[in-house]
Amino acid sequence: MVEPDIEPILARHPGAGRETLIPILQEIQTAHGYLSKDVIMRVGKHLNLPTSKIYGVATFYNQFRFTRPGKYHVQVCRGTACHVKGSLSVLEAVVKELKISPGQTTRDGLFSLEVVACMGACGLSPVVNINGEFYAKVTPRKCTRILQDCRHQEHANAGC
Amino acid sequence: MTTFLADGREIAAKPGETILLALRREGIHVPTLCHMDGLAPSGACRLCVVEVEGTGNLVTACSCPVSEGLKIRTRTPRVLEARRTIVELLLSNHPDDCLYCPRGGKCELQHLAMDLGVRQRLYRGAKSKRELDVSSPSILRDPSKCILCGRCVRMCEEYQTVSAVDFIARGSRAFVGTAFNAGLNLSSCINCGQCILVCPTGALSERSSLDAVVAALADPTKLVIAQHAPAVSVSLAEEVGLKPGTDVDGKMVAALRRVGFDRVFDTSFAADLTIMEEASELVHRVTTGGVLPMMTSCSPGWIKFVEQFYPEFIPNLSTCKSPQQMMGAIIKSFFAQRENIEPGNIVSVSIMPCTAKKFECARPEMQPNHVPDVDYVLTTRELGQLLRMFGVNLAALEAEAADTPFGERTTAGKIFGASGGVMEAAVRTAYYLITGQEMGDLKIQPLRGMKGIKELRTTIGTLDVGAAVASGLGNARQLLDQLRAGRKDLQFIEIMTCPGGCINGGGQPIGADLESVRARMQALYKIDRDEPRRVSHANPWITRLYDEFLGKPLGEKSHHLLHTHYHKREVPL
Ligand code: SF4
Ligand code: SF4
Ligand code: FES
């Protein structure tokens, strides 16, 4: 069986053709947060499509991730309003603090980073979203501190 | 017939024909990049624009059908400007290292820039910089030189049905790569090199073994042996500027000696040997209820294709090694003994029309006791370069004969180079093995020509034989799917990975059109028509090889040296 288990999702699309590729990928992404290699190959088998094609389609859209999301999923908005208010330096601060690039997950599995175009919260710009929670009018320093807090919290929970 | 006006001249077109094809027939060359003959237009590059009179619209000639009364202009300043701008934009992020490029002098982008009069850099973008993919034993990919025309993607997907590569990501970040952007060696690529032939730039080329061969040639302690495949002598001419379809066999032998090879053997001899083994295997399978239909195993891209996509047919594959590997094996055994040379002091080089042969000779099964049957493979293109590098003028040389004992061939071995040739040669010998007589007419017309799938029904003695031949893996896939669906009337199937067979192999000269490939094929059949010895079992050196060394076909020694096995492969399909 492939990791994570996507059979229930595929079962909802029996005998499907290539037009269902994107809906299937979306359902998997929603349920599991990412598309693993095994999952991509399994979907290929189901739809009778080459793996390279599915990978190509999935990388065409920004919404798909290929690594397991971290415990804290950090989204930095790079939409126009946020850009004007300095979101680039916020992003750079996050990249520096977490030592990963957008689309990646830290080795300890704690953080993952995603760049999004606009979260519809322009009034709060620049804005960062961690696990669904909005942080408004962040600065590089503020953002770094938030991430450090998350990490401390985790270490405290782990009892070290 | 539809008539239209191009630059004020009336032109007749077939109904539904594209502007591009109609103009081409009239001798008007419209430049193209994404267009591929025989495939649906993609209209992606827009280089082929022409101007519609009256509206002034620019339309793509490759995808726009001719309509009655259409009036176009093919060379207005606006058209030329549009085409030039496209090329200038393609050049804006191009690495600009033409002097160091494997495609230098044969690059379509270079030619377009020259022909359209690009004389200065108008757009300056960040130079495209992506890592070389050196992971494959056969194919070298340099994605920074890729201009995203999509021709390799379509070749791999639509002709070969392999789909090892596709467009990844989007917009300015888009590139052509494999699933998960892994190295080509980890992908489903079967190393056919057809993508190299269609790539307009230096983004795709073969992994060259030229340096290693040049070093071996300079090493006095080594006996360096060349074998050349059947299709090389009828295509090398194009590398040195001679007419397509010129057979340069004897001159090539002379040239290989000038370059420094100590012995020159003809892979067609090993093709004769393959026929002895393979025809015997077929007869054995038919008479003992073995797995049928038997499928040929000379084309290493096809073998990897079966191992990946159709592992259930592995038992159908003939266990015969390919001619290249058989030749390698007998060079390092029979020949080494005969000449009293340590196999380790032999460097065995094969000249092949093929990139997958590089993969094949590196397969662990082809290195008994870690001694490779064949050490290096050079493509026809690499041989062309070797001759130029060493200053050997092929055209000026007198023809010479290949060396004994493996220089003697029949024309049956020679026609291996064309799709259908292995089958034709095998049927000739199987007929003899079964009936004890020679076939009346040796020419088997239904097996010849460029068609993707060819079939033959015939009787040999009391045996009814159904045979099919496919070239290009999309066609092979069709046959396999028919077998999967229960087709039962076939006993023997020949598959060649490349469309048309080795004459159109991935290691052949760049820039050949269908006519050149046809000329190569005709050259092979002309040899078959004109020479007296046309059946593999009549090769005197084959008889001697069996008498003095191998014993009999499918015997103990053959089994050891000339046969192999295959295994299922797990790759992202
Ligand atoms: S060598 Fe053949 S299989 Fe491999 S990428 Fe090129 S066309 Fe596809
Ligand atoms: S690698 Fe060559 S054939 Fe393939 S898209 Fe790039 S330029 Fe075109
Ligand atoms: S050749 Fe016509 S659009 Fe590319």
Shape, per Cα inertia axes of chain B: globular
Total helix count of chain B? 19
The fraction of residues assigned to DSSP E strands of chain B is 5-15%
Question: What CATH first level of the largest domain in chain A would be assigned?
Answer: Alpha Beta
Distance between the termini of chain B: 45 Å
Q: Specify the CATH class of the largest domain in chain B.
A: Alpha Beta
Describe the structure concisely for a colleague.
Chain A is built from seven helices and four strands. With 160 residues, chain A is of the alpha+beta class.
Would you spell out the secondary-structure blueprint of this structure?
The complex is a heterodimer of chains A (160) and B (573).
Chain A: H1 7-11, H2 21-32, H3 37-47, H4 51-60, E1 72-77, H5 80-84, H6 87-98, E2 111-116, E3 128-130, E4 133-135, H7 140-157
Parallel strand pairs in A: 1-2
Antiparallel strand pairs in A: 1-3, 3-4
Chain B: E1 2-6, E2 9-13, H1 19-25, E3 49-52, E4 58-60, E5 71-73, H2 77-92, H3 108-115, E6 139-141, H4 151-159, E7 165-168, E8 175-178, H5 194-198, E9 204-206, H6 210-217, E10 223-228, H7 236-239, H8 249-259, E11 263-266, H9 267-288, E12 294-295, H10 300-309, H11 323-339, E13 346-352, H12 356-361, E14 376-379, H13 380-389, H14 411-414, H15 421-435, E15 453-460, E16 463-471, H16 473-484, E17 492-496, H17 514-530, H18 540-550, H19 556-562
Parallel strand pairs in B: 1-5, 10-11, 10-13, 12-17, 13-14, 16-17
Antiparallel strand pairs in B: 1-2, 3-4, 3-5, 6-9, 7-8, 15-16
The complex binds iron/sulfur cluster (SF4) (2 copies) and FE2/S2 (inorganic) cluster.
One iron/sulfur cluster is lined by residues 146-152, 176, 198-201, 203-204 of chain B.
